[in-house]
Write a structure and sequence with these properties.
With 331 residues, the protein is of the alpha/beta class. The protein has helices spanning 11-22, 83-93, 107-122, 152-165, 170-182, 231-245, 266-282, 313-320, and strands spanning 27-29, 35-38, 47-54, 65-66, 71-77, 99-104, 127-132, 184-190, 210-213, 224-227, 253-260, 286-293, 303-310, 323-325, 329-330. The chain is 32% helix and 24% strand. It has a six-stranded mixed sheet with strand order 1-2-5-3-6-7, with helices on both faces. A six-stranded mixed sheet has the order 10-9-8-13-11-12. InterPro entries: DhaK_dom, Dihydroxyacetone_Kinase.
């Protein structure tokens, strides 16, 4: 393992110190070292909080910023933040109008968010949630409640954060974020495994010359292991998983997000996007906006995810709203 580390057990805390120093115009520390908040949160708005395990940068703290999230709870690598951290994130985000907690569907996060909400209620703080479940490969469509949240969370934060910034009530923010994730589907392809610094070796295997379709960000099994294919073939596999599931059809207008998993060169992500665009446009689906880069990663795993969200007038307005964070900047 060749990494830039001091003590592998302290990598999250040391990362947070560096992150806050670099992005002090956007974020600020709190009394809880595992909670980061927006440097200046406008008064009188609904707070937007999130959180999750580390190793997926820029998620989650990278989406704290203008017209996005207001605070995030930070867990160990691939481990949920504690209930106390989620509670402190709620308090940091709260501006007197309630807090929308927008997070991904993982058992640890579900448990700790529920505990935090109970604690918040005792303190008079109203918190409502939306749980992202956009990963098509993680469960059948008739068991969508079991699906994981992956890169579609970025679009959920974009819509929910924009609705809060526009003055929406807590129920309106929750409705917008829920609509965003309900209209979103994702799938990933992994090319290499990743290594947790404190472990020192990969905790799952992708053999050289192969790829795993539908793999999760923590190495959760996908739907197929097959020989490594060209970018065009990978795009075809991804599009053929995502589009029929919603289903996206001719005449739809969509947002497309292609995210690297951490170690794939951005150059190759653009190669993949070019193939995806040809397939989606060829089906008569209009791409209103596209994002390509490292938006939701898994340490140094090689591979990529494809996320597609169907737009209506409301979602288009929310997606198009300017925003400013480490993870996404948009005029």
């Amino acid at each position: 393992m060749q990494r830039i580390l001091n003590d592998p057990d302290n990598v999250v805390d040391e990362m947070l110190k560096g992150f806050v120093k670099v992005h002090s115009d956007i974020v600020a520390p709190t009394d809880n070292p595992r909670v980061i908040k927006r440097a200046v949160i406008p008064a009188g708005k609904v707070g937007v909080a999130t959180g999750g395990g580390s190793g997926h940068k820029p998620a989650f703290i990278g989406y704290i910023g203008e017209n996005l999230c207001d605070a995030a709870a930070v867990g160990e690598i691939c481990t949920s933040p504690t209930a106390a951290a989620f509670l402190d994130a709620f308090k940091a985000a709260d501006q007197g109008k309630g807090v929308a907690c927008l997070y991904g569907n993982y058992s640890g996060d579900n448990m700790n968010v529920k505990m935090a909400i109970k604690m918040a209620k005792k303190e008079g703080l109203e918190v409502k949630t939306v749980v992202a479940n956009d990963d098509v490969a993680s469960a059948p469509k008739d068991q969508a409640e079991k699906r994981r949240g992956v890169a579609g969370e970025v679009l959920m934060w974009k819509a929910g954060g924009a609705k809060a910034a526009a003055g929406g009530s807590l129920d309106e923010v929750i409705a917008a974020a829920q609509k965003a994730i309900d209209h979103t589907r994702s799938v990933g392809i992994g090319l290499t495994p990743c290594t947790l610094p404190a472990v020192g070796h990969p905790n799952f295997e992708i053999k050289p010359g192969t790829m795993e379709v539908g793999i999760g960000h923590h190495g959760e099994p996908g739907i197929e292991v097959c020989p490594l294919e060209s970018a065009a073939k990978m795009a075809e596999r991804m599009v053929n998983v995502v589009l029929p599931d919603y289903p996206f059809v001719s005449g739809d207008e969509v947002v497309v997000l292609v995210s690297g998993l951490g170690a794939t060169p951005v150059m190759e992500l653009y190669v993949l996007y070019d193939e995806i665009e040809k397939l989606i446009s060829g089906k008569g689906i209009k791409i209103h906006r596209a994002y390509v880069g490292n938006y939701f990663t898994s340490l140094e795993m090689m591979g990529a995810t494809l996320t597609v969200m169907k737009l209506d007038d409301e979602l288009k307005k929310l997606v198009d709203m300017p925003c400013y964070s480490m993870g996404i900047k948009q005029n």
